Every structure is written in structure tokens, then in C-alpha cells.
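During the reporting period the student researcher (J.K.) took over the structure-prediction task from the postdoctoral fellow and processed the backlog of single-chain submissions. One of the processed entries is reproduced below for the supervisory committee.
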Amino acid sequence: MVPVLMYHHISPLTGPHTVTPELFRDHLQMLSDKGIRTLSLDEFAEWRRGERSIHQPAVLLTFDDAWLDNWVYALPVLEEFSAQGVFFVVTSWPGDSVARVGLGTDPDWSPFSHTESMKLAGTTSGDRVSMRWSELLAARDTGLISLASHSHGHGDWWKRGIGVKEMLDYFEMDLRHTKDTLETQLGACPPHLCWPKGHFCSSMMKMAKDNGFVHQYSTLRGSNQKKATTQIRRINVENRPGDWLWRRLAIYSNQLTAAALGVVHQNLHYKRMKNRYPSLPRKEFVGPRLRLI
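J.K. obtained the following C-alpha cells:
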């Protein structure tokens, strides 16, 4: 089993979806002390397909949204530990200017909270909170960071107030845009998609898979097994010390415990999604064996 850890902001600010650089360093120190490998995205995908054996405990580190503070604070700590990670990029958000080197020591710059970042991202002021393509490519060129899609518009299709067919059409257009952008920037579109806010339905899963996104990252709790389903479960990492994270990993490394907690969480999430999107048919949230969400 390989747990996938979910981060958003690495920042000295405190608040939702934020881990301080000091505690992030503590997390990586714990992983190092316990002999836990950080996998690359390719290694994780090969293991999932049954093409790679992993002979020691391992995790995959993921960072949603490609916030600028990941460039300023997370990347140096990852480099310190030679730890690998994945930046999931909302492909309409990054700008095209040069990389901002030394931003963390610039007295005129300060990070933004998650709430402020979400207000600015994708706007004319979005460059203040999002990484640029030059920074994303520089992070990739360290050999530690993989880049993959977090959609093109961060779930805009849910906000349209339109019918189900129109919403799915808009989602498919978003998939085309994110694929085209990644092909332009990276030369190829990686087959990985991280669902914005963890919101998806059966039709969207199939459409994403049909468009080449065969590895789909959710916010559903749990661990992951070899040759499992398209959906990948993750563990939300909180702003707590490394020993807290170690205890979480111990829980989710136990197959029975991880499965039980996963079923409970997905059923709770299913109910929230059904209440949030009542226009979608019930079948959109039910799989052949277990409810998907």
C-alpha cells in the first residue's frame, strides 16, 4: 500500500490548507528517519500498473493548485531532503514572465492566505499567488518535481447553473484546454488529473479516462493498492508535527483500517455531493460495488 499525502500551501501563515515550512521540514525529517521513500509520479504510476515493485515503505507527496508559496517555501525543503513531489497545476492560472528567484528574502513580498489566494487566482492579480510557467519548469528541472493537471479552470463547470449535459460538455472542453496547455508547456500531457475540490461524478470519471487521464486523484481518504481502480485516495496533511503524520501513516498503512475509514469517508462525501448538486442523477455517485463519493 502507498499513501498519497495532500498538501496545498507551505507558508509561515497559519490557516486552512496551510502547513508551515518548519512543520513541513519536520514531516520530511520524519519520513527520512523512518526510511520512507518519496516516489516520483512515474514510479507511483508504474507501481499502480504492476510494473514496479517497491521494497520499502513509500509515499507520494502532492501539492494542489501550484501556489507561489510552494516555489518559495516548499521546493527548498524538498531539495534539502532530495524528496520528490507533484505540483498539480490549474493550467489557466500560471503567468508567462521570468522566474522570481529569491522571493522569500524580498522584504516587499509576503505570502497570502488560502482565502486570499482563492480570490486572486485566475484574475489579473493572480500572478501574486500562483507560480509562473517558468517557475514550474524550473521546479521540474530540479529532477524532484513532476507536473500534472488540476484542470484548466478549477471546477468552473460546477458553477455554471446549467443542465447536466451542458455541464458535462463544459467539463470536456476544460479537459481539452488543460491537455493542450500541458502539451504546449511540457511537450506531452501526463495521464494524471487531480479533481478540483475533490468534486467529480461517474460521467466525469469516464470522460477524463477517455481523454487519457487514467490516474485520477481525489480527496477521498485512504491508501492505494497495486492494480486498483482509476480513483486515487489521499491523506490530508494538517499543520501538525511529524509524529502526528507518522501516526496517520500507521493508520492508513493497515489495509483493514484504511478500507474501513475509506468507506465511511466516501459515504459521507457522497451525501455532501448529492446535497450540493441535486440536479445530478443518483447513479452519478454510485459505482458497481461501492459508492464513489
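The committee noted the following: The longest strand covers residues 58-64.
J.K. will present the remaining backlog at the next meeting.
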